[in-house]
Amino acid sequence: MASAGAAVDNPFFARIWPYIAAHEVEAIKALRRENLAGLSGRVLEVGAGIGTNFPHYPESVDEVVAVEPEQRLTVQARAAADVVPVRVVVHGDTVEAFSGGEPFDAVVCSLVLCSVADPGDVLQRLHSLLRPGGELRYLEHVASRGMRGRLQRFADATVWPRLFGNCHTHRDTEREIVAAGFEVQTARREETLPAWAPLPVSELALGRARRP
Q1: Residue 196: which of 122, 157, 146 has the closest Cα?
Q2: CA angle at residue 46 from 25 to 145, to 5 degrees?
Q3: Residue 135 and residue 138: Cα distance in Å, rounded?
Q4: Which residues pair with 191 in a beta bridge?
Q5: Can you give the three-state secondary structure of 69-91, one letter per residue?
Q6: Where are the alpha helices (DSSP H) in 82-118?
Q7: pLDDT tens digit string along 20-60?
């Protein structure tokens, strides 16, 4: 859930996120692996956090270029990059400021579009960094319906974004993906906590979208 804004300084989030990421439930770990399965070529990962995804990249990936603008997390992401078989280069930039060079074959977003200041702008930037036919792989917190949706709106309007790195749980992320020019190829929703759990981040969207 690392943010991609102009200046990222989240000392509380940077303190708690490594613990949260290290204790993810198996359901989320499995979704991370599925999100990265079959990737190849040159990949851009946005909001890498502490590098939780890095061990799950397949050997078919030539290089992962990861951006993580929270400098406390950047240090940990670089340490994680040093101990995985796939080549990973970590940049301490926002995605808006990042200069990508050659177009990427794929972009990976994992629990990050909920926390950027303007997901529409970020997605348009990602669209521009992909080659035609390139993939966006996403695993994201998304808006729920009913009682959980009401809880999400309350959480987003109160303390949740301040505590958790600007995370907004009630976003229509898939609509924003389509609006940025992507064609969604596959998508589904997964509940990672029991229906009665009083947390707004239970429902995740897992999908693959393509730049035409």
Answers
A1: 146
A2: 55
A3: 10
A4: 203
A5: CCHHHHHHHHHHHCCCCCCEEEE
A6: none
A7: 999 998 999 999 999 999 999 999 999 999 999 999 999 99
